[in-house]
Amino acid sequence: MRVLLVEDDDPLRDVLLELLRQRGWNVHAAARGDEALELARRVSIDLSIMDFHLPGLTGLEVFRRIAR
Fold first, then answer.
1. Positions in the chain short of pLDDT 70
2. Helix ranges, 23-58 (H)
């Protein structure tokens, strides 16, 4: 399972990243909406876990752009 994890709170992102990886998931993490969009364009993603209140692009805007 390839997961895109987007969270701007560093400690929370680090904990989630570690927990998901411990369960064997292939996780790509970003702290900003623009970083998330770039990752989503380069890597095939099965699941996204995204904070909606991000610096730069909001999580909702990232989802909209990915869906295009």
1. none
2. 33-42
